Amino acid sequence: MRTQRSLPAMTAITALLLTLTACGGNGLPQAYGEPSPAASGAPVETTAAPSASPVPQPGPSAASEAQSIQGSGIYVGQMDNHSVEIETEEGPTAFELGAGTENAPDSLEMDDPVVFVYTEQTVGDDPDVTQRILSRLVKADGGEAPHGAGVRPDTRTFKLKLEGMEEERTAALASGEGYSLYVFDIFGFDAANGRLSMKADPDYYAEITRLPAEFNLDQLEQKGRAELAPVGRVTALSEEERDRRMSDVRLYLTATRSGLTRQVAVKEVDGQGYLIRLNIPQREASEGFGPHVYASLDSLANSY
What we know:
This protein is of the alpha+beta class.
């Protein structure tokens, strides 16, 4: 009879436990999206991780804080009324004309070296899309010209007059001893010896020598004349004739005989002199050699 009385007792205890469990809030999970019942007593512990202190996130003003960036490159042209294209180390790059630069393109021409200052601003909510806005854009002349090889674009397009027609040709940047220049694909460049020669006919060449800081122009002219005398009568070109070939040429001597022209020139780039020797046979490649080699030599810039 002891056993018969224990079964109702166990049933009663089980019912009591279920009731206490329901009151304690530890019953079956509530339906997804339903609010949790409010507790009138001590806070109910849950299995959710405790919320940490909020991590400060940069606000819009901090994220978009503009910093001025300086750059240099080659002016390509105006894309529309409010943007321009400049060839930089990254390649052709678009810039928006900001306040104070709206009229800057009026004083620039294609292929002008330029220096500029700009800021980068994020477009919309995408941090990967930025807009470059110019606050300064001027032609690089005087002390502002970008002469180091590290700030020159890897390639540059030139306008050459070939067989009476103006054509565009692209040249690649190359470095020599203390200088850089643009080399067209018809040339090979021996940097160790400073020789720029035609691939199809290496007898067409120009040799470049960086002169000491205190070079004597009169002595260079005397040596040049002696060097060219075996070729033929030596002629010194006038300033106007020099400028037709290259800019900033202080001396240009030439001598010609049947089948050969040799020339000696002194070009100065921001006070640094370069002695240039040209060997020009009178053969099939003569017409194409001149425009290409003068454009390459005129692109000489100091590396230090």
